[in-house]
Amino acid sequence: MRKISLNKNQQYWTIQILGWFSLVFVETINYTFFIIREFVWEYVFQFCFLALTGLITSHFYKVLFIKPTIFQKSLSKIWGKALLDTFFITFIMVCLTFIPLVFSAPEFFSTSEFVIHFLGQIMNIARYVVVWIIIYYLFHILDRNRIISQQNLIVENLAKTSELELLKSQLNPHFLFNALNSIKALVLIDTTKAREAIIKLSELLRFTLNYEKTPLINLSDEIDEVVKYLELEKIRFGDRLDVNIDLQAETLDAKVPPAMILTFAENAIKHGITQLPDGGIIEIKSSSNSQTLKIEVSNTGELKENESKGIGLKNSTRRLQNLFGEKAELHLQSKSPDKVSVTIVYPLKYNNHA
User: Fold this and answer.
1) SS3 category, 288
2) Cα 182 vs. chain centroid, distance in angstroms?
3) Cα distances (angstroms) measured from residue 99 to each of 48, 49, 54, 104
4) pTM for the full model?
5) Which domains does the chain have, with CATH numbers?
6) In the predicted model, is pLDDT for residue 164 greater than 60?
């Protein structure tokens, strides 16, 4: 048996029609067995007219006056708005039910009986409007909570995935192996430089082991660690590695995700410099305007297709957007046939989403 699946719009109209026309059934049973104790078609037609009025009034009122943004506010404001909506929808429906009397019995509106009948209709119709309001508002409140829960799960999964990726990059065995080999060779040549290299390596390892404790650090602090890393790599590559760092002074205190630029520098070594017999250059630049910060890490080399689709690149993009919002961007591209760059751009003013 094929399962019938309805979209949100179809679900809405199905519930609308079934909900309002259940009024006909309830009121017909009520009048037939408990009030007048006989079946009268005239009352059934009146109930159908009332149900149709409720269907049309509630729909157009929803479209015109119940905006989706109301469900993003606090519960007290949401239910306060629901109370007002109940009154206005009821009032409109009651006024519509009295329209036929304007033409058939206009003198009725000048009698005291009209006031009693009008208030009675408000009490009667308000019962159904309250049910409609509760169902409609509860649906949207629960739907908002479901979306928030899904977003929280996505953030938690992203955090766990990012944590695993970060842990993998914290102690890159190839870098450690190469750095220790370089220091071993340096010990026999220049003990002073070897001692400095060991200090830089220990500081760099301490940083990589502790940076996940802080979501953001100053750009200047991040660059200090990147410089240590590149100086250690320069022991291995010698003249084959050139480094050019050009930072705009206004960006030094800007906040960046810790170890992100360090990871880009490591990728530049791994995918670029090590692949070239003659080596190359790594450039790190930063700039800002009144709204955004831009950081670019480029290196000599060629961009391979699988590099632009890697999991690490997607995780870095999600990490940026989690911290700085949807306006954060990350681009990996070829700037020229022999130059690859990765650029991150994000707003200076943001709410920390982490």
Assistant:
1) strand
2) 45
3) 15, 12, 14, 9
4) 0.54
5) 8-159 (no CATH), 171-347 (3.30.565.10)
6) no
